[in-house]
Structure formats: structure tokens, C-alpha cells
Amino acid sequence: MVAEAWQRAEIPGPIKALVIKKPEVVQAMIKKAKRPIFVVGHEAAKINLGDKKPIDYVIRIAKAANIPVVATAQTVAEFLKRDFRPAAWMSAMDIGNRLTDPGWSVSGEGGSHDLALFLGIPYYMEWVIESGLKSFAFHHLKTVSLNRFYQPHCNWSFSNISIEDWDRNLEIIAKGLEKK
Predict the structure, then answer these.
(1) Phi/psi-derived region of residue 132, left when phi > 0, alpha when psi is between -120 and 50, beta in every other case
(2) What's the CATH fold of domain 18-178?
(3) Cα–chain-centroid distance for residue 140?
């Protein structure tokens, strides 16, 4: 498992994400979180994982753990096609900015989110969002990248893994949360 930025020219600084070696770690973090949020970009609906797409795992995980989903751009249409309504939709940069505010939550109720899961946002864009959160939301927010390339600015990330390993890890997370 390589903990190396997927884009080689990018230098993340001295503090890097911990590598998710076992997907059960993500299950535990989700179960422990008081106010998690799932940020989903358009790539979740584009990438093929055999007969499914990452967006299908997002829906399973969100339903099983009662996590509000914030969809970006045209991703909303893909969720609606699957009969799932996200809690909100906005640009990825906007959600990244809002997550730095310790008083903001997608539901509008008091209290900030304590765990943010990211999936399907283009690598270079997630890099910038995670960098901002690492600098300005570290007191109240833990971040997890569930994309298949190592994202050094978040708290936890998969290493650079194959499509097959990514599919298997997402399946383990979803199944573990569906067991009540």
C-alpha cells in the first residue's frame, strides 16, 4: 500500500493522511460519528465497477448509516434516477467552504459535522478542498477520502488501489453498515 500522492508534483506537507488498510476502520468511524456527511461528485456515477458504480455504494452506505448526502452538479440527476434524494446539492468548492464553518450543517440544525466522507470528486479538486479543510476545519472535522487514489490532505484515505480492490473495500463498508 503506497501512501504517495497520485499526482507526483503535489507536495502535501509534513502531515499526511493515514492509510485505510482495513475498510472496517471506516465502518467504525461512521458508527462513532455524531453528525457525518457524505460529499459526492460526478465521477461516482461515471466509473464502472463491474455491474455497479460507486454511487450505488454511496446510496447503500448513506441509507444504512443515515448519512446526509450532498451531491455536486449533475450528480443529483443520477441519484434521482436511483430513487434517492440527496439532502442538498451545491458545487464542490461551496461545500468545502461551508464545512470550514463550525456552526454549519446541511440540515440547518445546530452543530457542525464531525466526519466528512468524500467520493467521486476529481482528484485535483478534492486535493484543494481537503487542503482547505486540513487548514481551517481541523478542530471540528475529520475527513475520509473513499476514492481509489491516495489523498494526502485528508485524515484517512485508501492508498493507490486497483478498481477491484476499491470495489471490494466499498462492498465491505456497505455490508458492515447494513448489519445492524
Answers:
(1) alpha
(2) Rossmann fold (3.40.50)
(3) 16
Backbone angles phi and psi of 118, in degrees to 5? -120, 135
Specify the DSSP class assigned to residue 50: T
In three-state form (DSSP H/G/I as H, E/B as E, the rest C), the secondary structure along 97-144 is HHHCCCCCCCCCCCCCCCEEEEECCCHHHHHHHHHHHHHHCCCCCEEE
Tens of pLDDT, residues 101-142: 998 999 877 678 999 999 999 999 999 999 999 989 888 999
144 phi, psi to nearest 5 deg: -135, 125
Domain extents for the chain? Answer: 18-178
pLDDT digits (tens, 9 = 90+) for 53-71: 999 999 999 999 999 999 9
Q: Closest Cα partner for 28 from 175, 179, 173, 180?
A: 173
CA distance 52 to 127: 26
Number of residues that this document lists for the chain? 180
**DSSP H or E segment with residue 176:** helix 163-178
- Residue 171, all three cell numbers: 462492498
What is residue 138's predicted lDDT score, i.e. its pLDDT? 86
